[in-house]
């Protein structure tokens, strides 16, 4: 039986990774972090009591477990290539990136040839739940590896869902975001219709939350980020487009007709092109606003 995980190398301490790694420190794990942004690892160490490393390979030396959470599977592959010489047999790689299931299976197969196991564990819940350690985690991999990773995952999340073999967690995450993205768009359109009719969009949100139209966006996004005009939820519009593209890729691989999903993805991609790099995913509302000539919470143009 593999030894319990005590030493964790954490690669990628961005908006989500930083609070996730901080919760591992709080839970008593020995955490060493590395990040491509100069100075970020040192800042993390100074603030949380974790350790900083200058490179992924340095962070991985002596680690029982390596966690990756970066924007794409391409970057995961690059990180794994860089740290491979430092990985001892028996190390567990936990990829928490919202990545491509097929690419992840390729990486896992390569690592297995070096005596290193890999599981995929993308998360849902955003920055607020990353800070409180209440993320939902969708896990894919061998049961024994998932059992070994369980204490680590439970330091970051309260809802751990075993979805199947390697890649299953990432497929589930992409499909979750597809459902979330569809609900967001239709909710924005409903608010625009209602405002142009004369309804108060804030009151509409209250009614939706007391009725069958309730979803995550009505509960946690419309008032907080759209009607407030903040658009700063902390999850990039480009990342949502990436996840929707992965969902459609899974659809193609399974020969599943996806007409509504395809339209949803194209609308999000159109918003990304309209708003440019750096936009928050909640700003997709501006695409629908522009098409209708109406700003939610602003003056109604009839």
Automatic annotation (TrEMBL):
Instruction: Tell me which domain of life the UniProt entry assigns to the organism this sequence originates from.
Output: Bacteria
- Which keywords describe this protein according to UniProt? NAD, Oxidoreductase
Active-site feature positions: 173
Q: Which InterPro entries match?
A: 6-PGluconate_DH-like_C_sf, 6PGD_dom2, 6PGDH_NADP-bd, HIBADH-like_NADP-bd, HIBADH-related, NAD(P)-bd_dom_sf
**One matching Pfam family:** NAD_binding_2
Record domain 6-phosphogluconate dehydrogenase NADP-binding: where: 7-161
Q: Name all 3-hydroxyisobutyrate dehydrogenase-like NAD-binding domain ranges.
A: 167-287
User: From the Swiss-Prot or TrEMBL record, what is one GO molecular function term?
Assistant: oxidoreductase activity
State if Transport is listed as a keyword. no
Protein name per Swiss-Prot or TrEMBL: NAD(P)-dependent oxidoreductase
């Amino acid at each position: 039986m593999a030894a319990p995980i005590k030493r964790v190398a954490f690669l990628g301490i961005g908006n989500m990774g930083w609070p996730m790694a901080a919760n591992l420190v709080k839970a008593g794990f020995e955490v060493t972090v590395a990040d491509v942004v100069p100075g970020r690892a040192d800042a993390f160490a100074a603030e949380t009591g974790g350790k900083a490393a200058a490179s992924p390979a340095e962070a991985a030396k002596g680690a029982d477990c390596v966690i990756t959470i970066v924007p794409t599977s391409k970057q995961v592959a690059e990180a794994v290539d860089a740290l491979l010489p430092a990985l001892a047999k028996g190390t567990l790689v936990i990829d928490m990136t919202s990545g491509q299931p097929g690419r992840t299976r390729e990486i896992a197969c390569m690592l297995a040839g070096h005596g290193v196991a890999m599981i995929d564990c993308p998360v849902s819940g955003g920055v607020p739940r990353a800070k409180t350690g209440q993320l939902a985690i969708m896990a894919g991999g061998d049961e024994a590896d998932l059992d070994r990773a369980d204490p680590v995952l439970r330091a970051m999340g309260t809802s751990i869902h075993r979805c199947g073999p390697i890649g299953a967690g990432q497929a589930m995450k992409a499909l979750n975001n597809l459902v979330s993205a569809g609900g967001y768009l239709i909710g924005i359109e409903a608010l625009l219709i209602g405002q142009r009719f004369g309804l108060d969009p804030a009151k509409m949100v209250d009614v939706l939350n007391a009725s069958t139209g309730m979803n995550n966006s009505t509960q946690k996004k419309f008032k907080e980020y759209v009607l407030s005009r903040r658009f700063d939820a902390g999850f990039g519009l480009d990342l949502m487009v990436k996840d929707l593209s992965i969902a459609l890729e899974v659809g193609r691989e399974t020969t599943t007709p996806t007409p509504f999903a395809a339209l949803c993805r194209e609308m999000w991609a159109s918003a990304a092109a309209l708003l440019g790099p750096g936009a928050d995913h909640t700003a997709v509302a501006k695409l629908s606003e522009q098409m209708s000539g109406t700003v939610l919470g602003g003056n109604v143009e009839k």
